[in-house]
Write a structure and sequence with these properties.
Length: 195
């Protein structure tokens, strides 16, 4: 198999594994199920992938890095804190509707990571939340955001977009742009001080 073919097959394996984990759950999904989906013998699958956990690690950390990189960009933006929070919400919304399968695994199956991956993943998640919290606190101090407890605001915002990956259907009645606009308007209306 050529390098390019092998790379494409590996990407297909990750995509199909994410779908399988989403449908069956990580624990119930087997490598044999995955091999059937990608039309390989189970023994051939291992020439592409070391283990089921390797796939879970990749899906979880690819998404964690996506959010971390998004946070890096937002922190460097030359704008007020309300605009930074709006950008972070857009990152969550777009990721949820563009990467539905991977986000489902990222949100629901990360608990199955073994050590040291589990601790690393939790650490990345806490770091992201701490950085988000810091933006909120600064926004309250600077008068861009309503004087609401930072914890309440943080988890209200994050949980308000947490369900999207399970609900949104591209072929549905609401288009992605309209959904993003409505969610941003509603959430930012609840936290932003209008001037």
């Amino acid at each position: 198999m050529q390098d390019n073919e092998k790379k494409n097959k590996k990407q297909e394996i990750y995509r199909e594994a994410a779908k399988l984990f989403m449908e069956k759950g990580y624990n119930a999904a087997s490598m044999r199920d995955l091999a059937d989906r990608v039309q390989l013998k189970a023994s051939s699958l291992y020439s592409h992938i070391g283990s089921k956990e390797e796939i879970l690690v990749k899906i979880c950390f690819d998404n964690a890095h996506r959010f971390t990189e998004g946070m890096d960009k937002v922190e460097k933006m030359n704008c007020n804190t309300a605009e930074k929070i709006e950008s972070l919400l857009k990152l969550h919304i777009r990721t949820a509707i563009e990467e539905t399968t991977a986000v489902t695994v990222f949100n629901d199956e990360w608990r199955h990571l073994s050590e040291p991956y589990l601790s690393d993943f939790i650490s990345m998640r806490k770091d992201y939340e701490n950085r988000f919290r810091k933006i909120i606190k600064l926004g309250v101090e600077e008068g861009d955001l309503k004087n609401v407890n930072a914890e309440v605001m943080l988890y209200s915002l994050l949980n308000s977009v947490h369900w999207l990956h399970k609900w949104y259907k591209p072929e549905g009645k609401i288009k992605a742009e309209e959904l993003e606009k409505d969610i941003i308007e509603m959430l930012m209306g609840g936290v932003k001080i209008e001037r």
